[in-house]
Amino acid sequence: MFVHWITKHGNSKNTVIKDRLLQFANQLVLISDEAFVATFQSNCQEIINSNSSDRKISALCISVLLLERFTKLPCDQQAYEVICVIFKLIRHSDSVMCCYNVHIYEPLLMSLASVILMSDYNLFENVEKTLIKNILNTKYWPAMFSSDLWIIIMRYLPSDMCNWYFSKLAKILEALIVLPCFIQCPQQIYLETLLRRHYALVTDKKQLVNTCPQFNSPCLKSAIGILHVPTLSKYRRLSELVKIITTLPQQRNNEHLNGDIIYLWSCVREEHPPNFVCALIEISIGSGSLLKNIIPKSIKVLNIRADDTTEMKRCRLRLIRSILLQMPTFQENLIMENILKYLFDPHPLVRQWTVETIVYFSSVAGNQNNLISMLFKRPEVRATVTDYLEMKINSTYSHNDFVQYFEQLSLCGQFRHKCSFNDKLDKVLDKLKSDVDCLNSIVSKTCMSSTELERLKEYSSVLNNICETVQIEI
Fold first, then answer.
1. For the segment 119-152, what is each residue's pLDDT rounded down to a tens digit?
2. Which domain holds residue 122?
3. What is the pLDDT of residues 221-237, one digit of tens each?
4. Could you tell me which of 135, 125, 133, 209 has the C-alpha nearest to residue 166?
5. For a disulfide at 67, which of 111, 153, 306, 312, Cβ 3.0-4.6 Å?
């Protein structure tokens, strides 16, 4: 009755629910009973289907009590069943976890970790699959929760076990990184972030080099931030430099490359690829000594081009901000021109970055700075900055505006969101199935000419090519 009541009457005041549960926790002698767990599971499935936020919070609160009971009366099978239910709730409760994480996130995380660490190794073997599954999905909250739980567990494992599990993550990255659809997707971000956090826990890194063959992979080294480039030889071809330098912003120690980076700034030209110039900016602004040396050479990069990408504009603003902190009077007219141009750029993000640059530099340099004074003498600048600080939004964007924007990106080959094509793809496949059935019926009742047969083979070949090149969801 208790489980039915609390999961049915979820209260918006979840702290009250939690307090009430804790009052009765010690009296719930049968809370780990198989019948209780079975009732809880069946109710949770109904709660997931109902999409009620309050009821999900209630169910997660009961989960914490169940887990606490399992730390006193271990039962791996029941614990695993409850853990599976918890992750189902989390996967279907991302907005709830976001809104109420202070009340439930940490207690749930710590209780889960306690049960796993106090149970047999077999329990973690089963839970491990669930954690990996959640990390390799597109939803943010399940991935973050699973990553946090993974790290807590790794902290308490012996060093050799910690290394072994790092190797398992490295193997997963090695298998997925070759897939074009994996690059820059949420799963890559979640997995690489977890690898960086896990690597920080590794105490015997020399042993890891011997036990993890993937450790020599540039992709893995780049993911954990230790990629080492011995030199940026002046005689390398531009294509080779582009490949190397775009990985440099992910490194922590670039001091041995300072001379080569300064040389590259001397050689940079307008025709150089934007990603090359952006990477050059990113690795330069992180070092004060390096920045002072490249400032005189940066004028050519500050010149705005008609074909500048949004990323190029972002990096140029970051360069401007860094330069002004070192040399507040450097090329005032040119920087003024850039800021005014970007302040009214068609792209809302560029406008936002520009206002943030103005506000940041104003807070650091003060109103006495000549550039700031010149900017705020313009009424349109004052109005734009004031609207931003007061969080006023002048433009509204409809659903159609976003659809049109993403369609333009798709035509340029820069972006393709699968959700935009799901319904269309289903309809096309249904029609294709109907047409194939019709074709099969006709072929079975008549003879084909050689020309018709050749056409059929041609179309079949096109379908085979689509099947071979299609990207599937991970």
1. 777 778 888 888 999 898 888 888 989 999 999 9
2. 2-156
3. 777 766 555 556 555 56
4. 209
5. 111
